[in-house]
Amino acid sequence: MSNETVTLEALPRIVQAGRETTVTLRPRDPQARLPAAAWRVAVVPLGGLDRQTRHPEATACDARLTAEGLTVSLVFPSEQEYALLVERVTDGTPAAVADVRVYAVAADLFARRPFKGDFHIHSNRSDGREPPAHVAGACRRIGMDFMALTDHRQYAPSLEAIAAFANTGTDLRIFPGEEVHSPDTSVHIVSFGGRWSVNDLFATDRYRQEVAARAAAIAGLPGGTDPLPYVACEWCFDEIRRAGGLGMFCHPYWVCRSRLDVPAALTDLLFERQPFDALEVIGGYYVHESESNHLQVTRYYTELAQGRRIPIVGASDAHGCERPELFGWYYSIVFAASPDLQDVIGAVRDFNAVAVDAMNGQPARAVGPFRLVRYAQFLLREVLPRHDALCVEEGRLMVAHAAGDTAAAEQLRALGGQVARLYATLWG
Ligand SMILES: [Zn+2]
Ligand SMILES: [Zn+2]
């Protein structure tokens, strides 16, 4: 075996900072065996070593060769990425064989898992291409752990997607949702996970009366501002919360008919008063519209610098899953205890989510709090590709089930829990 051909993987890949962890480095090829020799592992924190530390000797330790591979007991002192430089020692001379990465996280983040989700997507029940069940299956195919269908002015399609997979044992969590369009504002709002339709309330006297009362009572708006568009938004966000959902302020920098769809003054007011639960910081823009995502991200970081903390999500807002645009370009990674609805919503509200921008197949870039972005970039590079690979077949079976393949549900059940099992091995 030549030194150059060894590909090792570390288990676990995610460890708790400050806690002693036994790491096994084993050949990725299950047939491969490491030769009996003296092995050492040098631990290099990505943040660098201080000037006095002689790398790698100061941090290297002997590894034990077992049937599994090399085992080494290590403490990773702080939250960051670490390189494990595996060396084979021959006649006292070490030769580097592999560079394997692990990530240490503090206890709060270690207790959470990353869940990929699309908070905003359309089916052919509004202006998308495919039926609701197909959209859900296609989301699993590209590695989503949860999604909600959010058709314009319609709640029922999201329930249709949920019903289509009842008793199939799919691990994709499908939640209710809708894109909410008040008659009194151009602002697009998504209700993610709400237990009833807010769109259905616009025809009621209650909506009319409450919005009129809010418009009469609101104080402190800049002179000459029509209060109605703002209070209509506020009313929608309150109603979404009442329904148990997450209210999202969508695509604020969308240019439509030669101007911003939401007037800049109204966007300013929404940032200032923050009646929403989450900002769709990365959203469904085509390549020619990518400037809008850039403005949203810049606006988010600018607000942050001014002391305003804003929960964020990323969403595809895709209107078709079988064409190479939008679908899969934008999504969220939510760090939560579980993919249950309340955990996902709670994690977003508590700033435990990042938005991912991978427009047109570009390398994925996470947006959000620096601590989470740094961790997410490691996961995107080292962990999520394996997660996504498992989801491909599950998604294919879901799409087949949606198309009437009666054997697909049984095959899907057989794959149940495979992502959870992978994560159980990757988290130490
Ligand atoms: Zn919209
Ligand atoms: Zn939309």
Descriptive report:
- Helix content is 32%, strand content 26%.
- With 428 residues, the protein is of the alpha+beta class.
- The mean pLDDT is 95.
- It binds zinc ion (ZN) (2 copies).
- The site of one zinc ion has 4 residues, from loops.
Defining key terms:
2 domains; alpha+beta; six-stranded mixed beta sheet; TIM Barrel; Immunoglobulin-like; 21 strands
User: Please, how many domains?
Assistant: 2
Computed Rg: 25 Å
Average residue-wise pLDDT: 95
Number of strands: 21
> What do we call the CATH homologous superfamily of the largest domain?
Metal-dependent hydrolases
Helix content: 25-40%
Assign the CATH class of the largest domain: Alpha Beta
Strand order of the largest sheet: 1-3-6-5-4-7-8-2
Number of helices: 11
| Overall outline | globular
Indicate the CATH topology of the largest domain: TIM Barrel
Poorly predicted spans: none
CATH architectural category of the largest domain: Alpha-Beta Barrel
Gist of the model:
With 428 residues, the chain is of the alpha+beta class.
Break the fold down into its secondary structure elements and pairings.
Elements: E1 8-11, E2 14-16, E3 20-27, E4 38-45, E5 60-65, E6 70-75, E7 80-90, E8 93-105, H1 107-110, E9 113-118, H2 132-141, E10 146-148, H3 156-164, E11 173-175, E12 177-180, E13 189-192, H4 205-217, H5 227-242, E14 246-249, E15 255-256, E16 259-260, H6 264-273, E17 278-282, H7 290-305, E18 312-314, E19 330-336, H8 341-349, E20 353-357, E21 365-367, H9 370-402, H10 408-414, H11 418-426
Parallel strand pairs: 2-8, 9-10, 10-11, 14-17, 17-18
Antiparallel strand pairs: 1-3, 3-6, 4-5, 4-7, 5-6, 7-8, 9-19, 12-13, 13-14, 15-16, 19-20, 20-21
Helix pairs in contact: 2-3, 2-9, 4-5, 9-10, 9-11
